[in-house]
Amino acid sequence: MSTFPVDAIARRRILVVGDVMLDRYWFGEVDRISPEAPVPVVRVARREDRLGGAANVARNIVALGAQATLVGIVGADEAGACIHRLAGEAGIQAALVADAGHPTTLKMRVLGRQQQLLRVDFEEHPGAVALDGVDAEVASHLAGHDVVVLSDYAKGALTRVQGLIAAARAAGVPVLVDPKGDNYTPYMGATLVTPNRSEMQQAVGRWQSEADLDARAQRLRGELQLEALLVTRSEQGMTLFTGAGREHVDAQAHEVFDVSGAGDTVLATLAVTRAVGMDWPDAMRWANRAGGIVVGKLGTSTVSAQELGELS
Q1: Is 142 helix (H, G, I), strand (E, B) or coil?
Q2: Nearest-5° angle of CA 303, CA 308, CA 312?
Q3: Minimal CA–CA distance to 6: which of 85, 65, 62?
Q4: Which residue spans adopt a coiled-coil conformation according to this UniProt entry (predicted)?
Q5: What does pTM read for this prediction?
Q6: What digits encode the pLDDT tens for the residues 5-31?
Q7: Which of 119, 124, 144, 192 is deepest in the core (most CB within 10 A)?
Q8: Domain annotation for the chain: domains and CATH numbers
């Protein structure tokens, strides 16, 4: 496999569009049970906010050494302001649409002794005006970018995904999609779609064998007119389907601590490696290595170019 192309990646620009969210962590200690109900009492000692969803994809792209522009929707609230601040600190060019009637998507996690005890979600689908804003931001930023990444967390920012794919194709820019749901028709015409194992089963049904998976995957790839389809399979590794056939790589993780955001890291690595012209099999292998590193970290984390470079 080729070495990780750090110098070439530094000159590449990736446009990330999708569901932006804030991951909020409250860390504490648990030493008693509540007298009000049979639940643990967490004495919060530390709080931390991290970029999540599409914003975490952009954060991973920057960590890998490329430039990232982020388009998404946030509310006119504290969480939205926090996303703006964190994006700036991470070196992301933020082109976020503010919607006063749309609260910023927020996932709040409470952890005790490094174990997640509770997650509370705040979310609401955006309206037409905010979606118009997304369309306008993509149109104004598409030129000059090497790859478009569409990060779909089913929060509504990619409601008009077909138009975004068509715009990127018209501009000659490859489109990589992290999908959601069981209907992949809206992603037709993308360059690559990257479902995980569960998402793939939702889209094509449960397969009975590897040969059955191959047939279902290639049929889906053909129906959607994709150049490539990559199925991420957790402990089973990753399987890539292209017109040339099937490629597989085994999982790299030695110890799985937290899978949160691992798909974002994989997508970001695929984007930067493809932006420098790497072929799909090598891009998959680097993405697999990056995913193996990030699942050994707590929460939505990143992998640096240096960490991958050490594996070259």
Answers
A1: coil
A2: 175
A3: 65
A4: none
A5: 0.91
A6: 788 898 999 999 999 999 999 999 999
A7: 192
A8: 6-20+54-104+127-309 (3.40.1190.20)
